[in-house]
Every structure is written in structure tokens, then in C-alpha cells.
Amino acid sequence: MLANFLKRLFGAEVTPRSRQDEFARLNREAPIRPSDIPPSGEASAPDGFVCRETLLGRDQRVAAYHFLLQQGTRTRIAKRSRRIHHVYAEVLVRNLIRMDVAKLLGHRLAVIELPDSFLDHPSIRQLPAKTLVLNVVAVPDTGAPRPEDVLEKIRALKREGFRIAADVQPTETPSAYLLGEADIAIVRADSVDPRRLRDFVASMGERRKGLQWLARGLPSHDEFSLCFNLGASFFQGPFITRREDWSGNQLGPNSARLADLLSRLRRDVDTREIAEQLKQDPALSLRLIRYINSAAIGLREEVTSIERAVLQLGREKLYRWLTLLLYGADAGNAAAPALLESALVRARMLELLGEGLPAAQREALFLVGLLSLVDAVLKVPMETALAQLAASPEIVAAVTSSEGPMAALLGLAIACEGDDQDAIAQAAEVCGVDSETASEAHLQALAWALEVTRE
Which of the pair, 429 or 335, is modelled with greater confidence? Predict the structure, then answer.
């Protein structure tokens, strides 16, 4: 991962532009054949209609992305014709094919929502079965297929290697009959009484041995802990980046050493002093020498001294590199990899939206995104973390107070992580960009972050 990140530090493009372009089309294009457009002119899929939810595994690493329609779009088409649901489903499927989702996500899974009557569409067979989880959703209208027909199609897809997910709740849902064939049950765990949830999970386990389940909408770590103890395999919700009361916490030993180095860099101390501090941490020194001499960096001569490594990398790039290491310095936060990925998406998106600005401003924008979740990974108050890292006043204002010229762009990046299209549009307007540009930048940033954090 760090080799790829250092490529980026030295100006190399990690994600091929063609792949970024394909990924950006997910929000921008609607590749529907003319014959598939509803003849009544009801609607075709609008720009920016797709969102993604991060799903963590039991190790709290990113295990999958759930691709689905924005909440506004889901609400808008909920009572529309089945034909409209098929239009949106095909747009989603064809864009996942076009962007080569298996290569993009690596070992992660892609979960996509599809109407129950869409399962025999030929486009599905063009998706990579081993990577895809098909979340089958019942569309409540008079044209609904018979349950036995849906189950027959699901069994055929499973024989081809696809996994099936179904939304189920303690209260009956239209797709509850799918549980018998589902590989993953999706439960809105935030709206269920804990005792009832426990009983429901137990009954699911009795009905389907080995059934995995996804806990959606978890607001805090308390709900995450409950679902973890109940055996959930996947977790989604605001708990991933939720702030808690960390006022009494101190930095871990490794984080403290990195923070001291970052502070010295910002105070512009002599390079020899930086090198001496690095030498006091043999593991960090070895890591720096290893990466500065890696094939990814492409230096002509081997670097053997810390002093030369610092000079070769440069202060700004060294600051980025050390900040990146903060996200995995101490072992006390299992969610650090997921937080790093989210921070990198924000950082890259801000950098993309700052295209055309002077290099120093783009660097500051990148650091705003990268540092915007540093409190969650260090588990200390944001003001404490930024003070120990000697972040510039402009970065502190943007991250802690939503003030200054960079705050609006950070707000837009955060809005793009949700599924509220109105919030995205409002944030984009404040920044003076259109929603399509913002969505494309977010998708390109996600593609880049997935590439540099690939294991």
C-alpha cells in the first residue's frame, strides 16, 4: 500500500485514467439502449443517482461496498412502474460492468440492489459472479413475479457463483420468503429492540445454518458491539466515523513519536534534527529506507542514510507519509484501515476539486481531507490531535470549525459520502461547482483510494 502511496507522492499516476473515467461514468452516464427507454417518457436515470455504503467485516476492515440508488431517487421511484425500476437497475449493472468492478475492488465484494423481476436480465451474466452479491428487492406492485419463479431464478444465479442477499426484519417484509436461498441477510439493526434482535438472529440461525448477516444503519459503537456479539458478519452505519468523548485519552506511543516528528517538520527544524529523531525509531527508519529504495520510487542510486532519505523525499511529502502512518501506528483501533480509506477519498477529492490552484493550496486541501478523521483513529479530541501535529491555522479552522476557504470543499466531500442528493446539491452550490462535477470527483477519488490501499 505505501509503495503505491509513495508513487502518488512523487507525482506518478496510480489509477489508470481510463479506469477513473469508467468509474466516473457510474454517476454521469445512463447507457440504456433506446428500446429500453420507457415509451411513455416517464424518466430515464438522472445524473448522480448512485451512492455507496462502506461495509466492514468482523475485523473492521472494509469488506465490501454496497452500491444502491440515492435515497432521494429511491423515494422518488418507490411507487413508479416496474419498468422504471428496471431502467435504473440496468444503468447500475452496465456501469459496474464497464468500470470492471472486480479489478477495481480487489478482494472486496460489491453488493448491488436489483428488483426481483430483473434477475433474468442478460446483463447480469456479464458481472463477475465471485465479486457480486445480488441484493434482491421486492417491488410492491401488481406486476410482481410469483415467489416460486423468483426462487428458481435465484437458484440458477447461485449455480453460476453469485451470492444472494435479502432484506429481512423481525417484522415481515415483502422479501422475507427469500431467506431460504439467501447467503446474506440484511437487517436494519438500528430500529430493532436488542432483545427482539437477539431472538430474531437466533431464529435465522436455526432456519439457515451458516447464514451470514449484515447489520445496517448502526449509529454508534454500542450497536456495533451488540451486533458483533450476536455474530453479524458485516456492519454498516455512521458508527464507522462517529466521534465519542475522548477528552481523557492520550496518544499511543507510536502515534506520539510520529506526532512529534510531524510537529518538528511544521516548525521547520533543521533536517539533521529530523533525521536524528527518525534514527531513534529503528523500525520507522528501516521502513523509510525500504520505501525510498523501492522499485516504485525508481531512484538511480540506493539511499543508505536517513539524512539523504529525508532530503530526497522532501519535507511536504515526508509530512504526508508520516500522517498516513498515523492511521496504523498503534494497534488499539481496528477500524483504522476503514478510516484511512475514507480519509484518502476526502483528501483526493479535495485535491481534484482544487485543480488549477497553486501547488501549496492543493497540498493544504489534501491535508484537510487526510486529517479530517485523524481524531477518530487516534481516539483523542480533534483539537488535541491537530495541536500535536502542528497543523496550520487554516487546516485547523476547516477541520474543527468549518471555517475558512477550505471548509466548504470538505463539507462537500462529506456530503458525497451520504445518500442525500439535496444535501450534495446544496454543498456543491456553496462551493461553486455543479453536482455532476462533485460526484465525478468523488468517484475518481474513491477509485484512487481503493488502488493505493489495495493489499
Answer: 429
CA-to-CA distance for 347 and 262, rounded, in angstroms? 18
Give the other-Cβ count within 10 Å of 7's Cβ: 18
- 196 pLDDT more than 90: no
**Segment holding 234, helix H or strand E:** strand 234-235
For 84: left if phi > 0, alpha if psi spans -120 to 50, otherwise beta; the answer is alpha
223, 190 contact by CB (below 8 A): yes
Q: Which helix (H) or strand (E) holds 187?
A: strand 184-188
Domain-wise residue ranges, the chain: 31-241, 253-452
More confident: 10 or 322:
322
Which is nearest to 52 in space by CA: 83, 22, 78, 23? 23
Cβ atoms of 6 and 322 within 8 Å: the answer is no
| Cβ-contact 255, 330 below 8 angstroms | yes
Phi/psi at 244 (5° precision)? -130, -175
What is the rounded average pLDDT for all residues in the chain? Answer: 80
Q: Which has the higher per-residue pLDDT, 46 or 258?
A: 258
- The phi-psi region of residue 244 (left if phi > 0; otherwise alpha if psi is between -120 and 50; otherwise beta) is beta
Q: Does domain 31-241 have CATH number 2.60.450.10?
A: no
pLDDT in tens, 320-338: 888 888 887 776 677 788 8
Chain length of the chain: 455
Fold of 253-452: Hypothetical protein af1432 (1.10.3210)
